[in-house]
Amino acid sequence: MRCLELPIPPLPQLITVGHAWHKPDFCHFRRNFPVYDVLFVKKGAFNMTEEDTEYELRDDCVLVLEPGRTHWGHRRHGVATEVYWVHFAHEAPSRVLMHEEIGWSLVQTRGTDKDELPSTQRMYLPKFGKLDMAGVYPFLDQMHELHSRMLLENSLQMQVLLGQLLPQLQKAAYFRPTSSSAKLSGQIVDYLHVRLPQPFDAGHMAGQFHFHFDYLARCLKKHTGLSPLQYYRRIQVEKAKSLLEHTSDTIQEVGEQVGVANYNYFIRLFRGATGVSPGVYRNARRGDLGE
User: Fold this and answer.
1) What confidence tens digit (pLDDT) does each residue in 188-226 have?
2) Within this chain, do residues 268 and 208 fall inside the same structural domain, yes or no?
3) Considering only CA atoms, which of 34, 33, 74 is closest in space to residue 57?
4) Do the strands 61-65 and 71-72 form a parallel or antiparallel pair, or are they unpaired?
5) Same domain for 164 and 131?
6) What is the mean pLDDT of residues 110-118?
7) pLDDT tens across 258-282, in order?
8) What is the CATH number of the domain that holds 66?
9) What dihedral angle (degrees, nearest 10) is formed by the CA atoms of 265, 119, 37, 47?
């Protein structure tokens, strides 16, 4: 499944939401406008062309029409069709990826109370396809109900519901059947988290999965952008940050809990990833928190 990559923040802003039963002879008009138009077909059929691509939507299908791209109905539905639509404003997609290419397990930068701007992140929406819509329709129904009696008190809740709807769409894309390499990549990620208190061991990993380590490394790199050791180092540092902030464990003890028993090496590893030593990081964080 193709997925649209949208940079966040800011989050998409809701414009409108609707629901209708279209008669069999309905055909969508031609339009080009600078917002996203997301179509959800609950039951029936919906025929839509975007630029030079035709889409045939059936039960539980979704289509994300992109801003600035002309779309129109290329054929009458032929059957009664129940459809929802959501319009929202956001910048154009930065790129289009297959869902297997997305680094779903890639560790993200965590914001701190020293940051003045949010870190750049990404969200993904399925371009087109049949999805598990069980988690989607309840949000659409709530949004449509609030929109039908639009009051000042509903405005913020409408935006919140859009913010809850979009993760459901991303989740539906994420949980589609994946390639064997994607499944293996996810298993490697789980393994690395479980093995965190232990030193990194390529031989143990190979034996655990019954694959050559080079093959395991290629699978993880393909889906996260990191080698097994790089991924392991990143979760080591993130775990160490949490321990330094929220426990009184010594630096030696923190190192041991993330699989680095050598005190000097742990300091070098931490400083290389964060730019400061564990002691300086702890003091800065606790000072900021008033401790």
Assistant:
1) 988 898 888 888 999 999 999 999 999 999 988 887 778
2) yes
3) 74
4) unpaired
5) yes
6) 77
7) 999 899 999 999 999 889 999 999 9
8) 2.60.120.280
9) -20
Residue reference for tokens 């801003």: 67
Contact 143, 165 (CB under 8 A): yes
Q: Nearest-CA neighbor of 273 among 248, 228, 236?
A: 236
Listed residues 126, 158, 174: the one ending a domain: 174
Q: What is the pLDDT of residues 82-99, one digit of tens each?
A: 999 999 999 999 988 877
Share the mean pLDDT of the chain. Answer: 88
| 125-145: pLDDT as tens digits | 999 988 888 889 999 999 999
Report H helices in the chain: 137-148, 152-174, 180-194, 202-209, 213-224, 228-246, 251-257, 263-274, 278-288
Structural domain count, the chain? 2
pTM of the model: 0.64
d(CA 27, CA 254): 64
Q: Which long-range contacts (CB under 8 A, 24 or more apart) does 189-196 make?
A: 189/105, 189/220, 189/224, 189/231, 192/228, 192/231, 192/232, 192/235, 193/235, 195/232, 195/259, 196/232, 196/235, 196/236, 196/239, 196/258, 196/259
Same domain, yes or no: 105 and 139: yes
The Cα–Cα gap between 144 and 86 comes to 10
Return the pLDDT at 176.
55
Q: For residues 19 and 40, is the Cβ–Cβ distance under 8 A? A: no
The total of other beta-carbon atoms located within 10 Å of residue 150's CB is: 11
Q: Are 45 and 139 within one domain?
A: yes
